[in-house]
Amino acid sequence: MSMIRDLRAVVRPSARPVPHKEAAAPFEPDTTTSSAVVDCAVYRDGARVESGRTLSPQEAMREARRDGGFVWIGLHEPTEAEFAGIASAFGLHPLAVEDAVQAHQRPKLERYDDSLFTVFKTVHYVEHDQLTANSEVIDTGEVMCFTGRDFFITVRHGGQGSLRALRHRLQEDPELLAKGPSAVLHAIADHVVDGYIAVADSVQDDIDEVETEVFSPGRNGGVSRGVDSARIYQLKREVLEFKRAVAPLQRPMQLLSERPMRLVDPDIQKYFRDVADHVARVHEQVMGFDELLNSILQANLAQASVAQNEDMRKITAWAAIIAVPTMVCGVYGMNFKYMPELHWKYGYPVIMSVTVALCLGIHRTLKRNGWL
User: What is the reported pTM?
Assistant: First the structure.
């Protein structure tokens, strides 16, 4: 049996239900305790240390450094004041702390003296019955990770990307958690990228639907009038948001998989290669989405232009037909005394017959040439 189980079985959801729920930590009043803390625990030898009471981050840190192990603290949208005590206790760099509190960061990996600061963009597909010009397709959030020798801190922004189920799955594999904070970092990276893959598949379905509508034949087998261009443009904007989450993550994953780092266990580093490969694959997919939507948008505009030209040809053709009786009526409406066939008994029916014959001839000619 290998030293570490296949990590995919841990970081990817299984069919079995989660055994218990993560509860918000009602810490005792403490000026350094943040109300934004979702969970705080000490892990020693891969197992969660149960102390019988809820530990504050400072107490957990002291226990981990006294008896060994590492602390995993999870926070959700902390304010600067709420995060200040934790940042000071764990010696986090001020620039990284500012990024974690402010959010709206691009995916990146930064190394400070005794810690790594990693930013991930979480992506969630928004279900919708029909794609419209105002449909929200992709919802994004952020997960910031501080990885130290004996601590791991996650700062989450946005309503999506909860790490509750992931924490429980990791706790079920003490052999993996015994590898320390870098094992948690890999699990989160793989969890986020798996979300990218699922969203990419759903976006592909939306693009296929729009593409089918654009290239479907119009009425009576004619040229399609296309779809609302605003729908295609909205989908393109959502894909652009997706690209902003995926593209910058390639470099951090390459660094984690290729460059030896003091805070990343060598056994864990090997598994970052798989994550980096998945990020590269999703990035290629998203770039393909962007190019395909450009082509679909151009084709839709071209079809709308062709449809308008067809309409103009039909209008012109009918105007040419109507011009014949208009000309005849105009001539006979001038009230000249000596008009041709004016006093002939069959003059009226002959003129009307000639007019109808000319109109039918013009109609037949235009229809044969595809104008009608």
Answer: 0.74
Q: Is the dihedral of CA 336, 341, 343, 348 positive or negative?
A: negative
Q: Alpha carbon of 139 to those of 74, 121, 239, 291, 297: distances in Å? A: 21, 10, 11, 21, 23
Give the pLDDT confidence of 189-247 residue by residue, as tens digits: 999 999 999 999 999 998 888 888 887 776 554 555 556 788 888 889 999 999 999 99
Which strands, in side-by-side order, build the sheet including 108-111?
47-48, 37-44, 70-76, 151-157, 138-148, 115-125, 108-111
Tell me the CA distances in angstroms from 250 to 9, 29, 81, 257, 334, one per residue in order. 23, 42, 33, 11, 82
Contact 128, 138 (CB under 8 A): no
146 Cβ partners below 8 Å, 6+ apart?
90, 92, 96, 100, 115, 116, 117, 152, 153, 154, 155
The token duo for 178 is 């015994």
Tokens 């949208």 belong to: 77
Query: CA 263 from chain center: how many Å?
Result: 31
Q: How many CB atoms lie within 10 A of CB 112?
A: 15
pLDDT in tens, 86-116: 999 899 999 999 999 988 889 999 999 889 9
Judge whether 106 and 205 are in contact, CB under 8 Å: no
Separation CA 217–CA 29 (nearest Å): 68
Beta bridge partners of 71: 42, 151
- Separation between Cα atoms, residue 113 and residue 68, nearest integer Å: 21
Query: Residue 178's CB: how many other CB atoms inside 10 A?
Result: 17
Instruction: Tell me which of 20 and 136 has the higher pLDDT.
Output: 136
